[in-house]
Amino acid sequence: MKKDFFLTRYALIIKRLERSAATYEGIEDYLLNSFEFQDAEVYTYSKRTLQRDLRAIQNLFNIEIINDRSNLFKYTIVSRPIMEVDEYNQRLLESYQIINTLNTYPDFEDYVFLESRKHRGINSFYELLHAIRNRKVIQFSYHNYLKNTFTERKVHPLILKESKDRWYLVALDKKDEQVKCFGLDRISNLSLFDATFKKYEMDFKTYFKYAFGIICFQDQKPYRIVLECSQNQKEYIKSFPLHDSQIIVEETTQKCVFEMLLYPSYDFMQEILSYGKEVKVLEPPILINQIKEQLIASCQNYQIL
């Protein structure tokens, strides 16, 4: 058994048991007939390896799998993490699967084309996560893109957040005691101090509940957003919701009306504009007017108006 193949095994076991309970023989047959096992030229899978894999799955992903004696000794998933943790585990496992798959095929560049745009700032990811976990005070230079200036920031790092393929540090800025978001691509000259800070009792799930991306308006109530999508676009938005609160309130063969509850931030407005004529804002009036202003300004850029 190849030592670098374990994450692929874990993913396949979870995938098989999510479908239904299975005996060892059923799991073995599923694994050995998978493309992953065949391409890696793995032809055996023992009960001892299965037991090790089940323990590892529980330790890594907190998914408990038991051998149910009352059900023909079938293996079944009996407990798993809360949705947010489970989603994180799934994404982590998927990432490892992709890496392992690419390593399996030395000629993958002939068949798999990766995004050529490079993420900046990821090189400080580990140091920032270390500072967050150990509650260490940090300092860095921060680049303001609009003003093209650099300022020194001393902060208490709280969490890392991803938004639209970019990573952000959410931290308490000691200059004004405000929680702010800092793009990792704009952080340089990072320093970690020995000084530590007390744990902040902040519920970031609630903090970002009505946010689109990283912008929050804690002093405002979220808006009820209603969007009408064309037949061409509706399936894309159904399969990849704009927000966790998104629901369908009307659907016909010609259109689909979505409703969600969030802060109509600049980022959200830009997202809506990116769909062009395929998405129309029905409510609230404030967002409709903002969209109109942006469209008029865009037309003026091309001397249409």
TrEMBL record:
Domain of life: Bacteria
Record domain WYL: where: 125-190
InterPro entries: CBASS_pafABC_assoc_protein, WCX_dom, WYL_dom
Residue span, WCX domain: 222-295
Identification of the protein by name: WYL domain-containing protein
